[in-house]
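## retry 2 of 3
previous attempt timed out at serialization; input unchanged, resubmitting
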Amino acid sequence: VGLAGIGAGSPSVGFSAGRPRLKKAIEAMVGQHRETNFNTHAIALTEALDVRKGVPGVLDKVIERECIGMSSTAFTEAERQMCMLEVQHQIDDMATTAETDGQDTIRSLRAILSALRAIDAPKTMVLVSEGFLMQDQIDEVTELGTLSAAARTSIYALRLDDQSFMADVSDRFAPIASMNDRSARGQGLETLVASSRGALFNV
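## retry succeeded, writing output
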């Protein structure tokens, strides 16, 4: 059994029968998940992506929701402008982070599958992930299926429930498009396992 971590600082272990070593490495894995507690506003990832794509009305809707009450005389024009800037900055940061993480995941999987081609034997890859953003990179993800066939590697994905990573239990039930966000992140995994003739399991 071998272990390959995706994400900065994630450990990797070459093929080994040493279970204690593998277990210790798994416990140290953090993946690419990033805490978002510093975010000031409750903005859905799908909203941020729609704004990035220029979908009409989405930015105005988010600003109206997040800066509610800012039209009151209790707030100055400077405070209203600050709120709008905060929203726009957070949207840009969320979209950029999600897109970068998706690209990094695809690049890492490509490198792993390319390395596995050197081992002339059937192999099984178990990918544990919350999912990754695919956006318009469907060709790149589909290519991973071709690489997996060349590497004689079957890919099985375990999709984690991202709500289990939220710091505040009350946040887990926030109605801000959580299903749409999970769907957007899940498309990458679904396309990957379909192109590699693997299987996807929700855990």
